[in-house]
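BUG: 3D viewer hangs when loading the predicted structure for this chain

Environment: internal workstation, default settings.
Expected: structure renders.
Actual: progress bar stalls at 90%.

Input used:
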Amino acid sequence: MDRAGFEPAASALRTFTQNKVIESSISSNNGNSARFFDGSIDWAKYEAWVNKEYRPKSAYDRIRYAKAFAYCLLQNDCSDLLALSNDKREHIMNALSCLSKFLGIYENWSRMIKNYGLKWRIRDDNLIIKRFTKTQDPDELFVWIRQIRAQCADLNDFLDLMLTTGLRFEESVECFNLIVTLTHEGKLNDYYNAEKELLEHYKFKSVFLRRTKKAFISFMPNELIKRIGSHNGTMAKQFIKSKVRRKTHRIRFSDIREIHASLLAKTLGSAEIDFLHGRVSTSVFMRNYFNPSWIGDLKERTFKATRCIIEQSLT
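Structure tokens produced before the viewer hung:
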């Protein structure tokens, strides 16, 4: 029986010996051409599979890096990965892991990771220090937000959504558009629990429960829901970014999530913040014991913090 992903059917390693190694025109980020084994992998099927399993940006990276570095997997040689930066190496490892599953040689890939001492995430104290010191003026982000409010009044409700929920930019756009669409269709109750003032993201798994980035719930006051629902139409990610870039010359939406988590720490515990930000870890506590339903004042404490965040963004 043919194994999916091969033409003709054979193991990846046996197919490698039967096919000529060619120089690929695909280049890695540093501009160096990479080699892969043309003919041993059905790239069309691989791309179709990846595009089905992953969101567009993740799929693009897994396809691009897999094509550029497939030779590491098929030659059992990951030495080229050792000299790369941690971030780039992790992207490549994600792609090769994906490709190895498609080819049915994941166990071999796992052995290669161990043999070469590769790590998925390498702790770098310098990155932590850089994060601590990158913002010199605590009010810097709020100045940027006020600038957007002044010059892009139509984005005020979107900014309030981000500041209230701490959702990632893409999640915020999806959330905003979903509220608008469902409000106009009279189906907002499918998403928003008005009694609990709770957005139930988990009901839309394909949108909010991605492989590595998740959002389960967000507290949002009824007043903001009504304002967003009154918008005439949805907004595209590129429209928002282009408009903000033209007006402020900077894109800092990721920093909103950071400051949201930092200021929530005044009223919420770390496990509560992690849950609201979708970071449900595999720790014994988070997996088996933490349940926000038992914390009756979670909404009140969350709103107390987010009201302060909103006020700082206005004055």
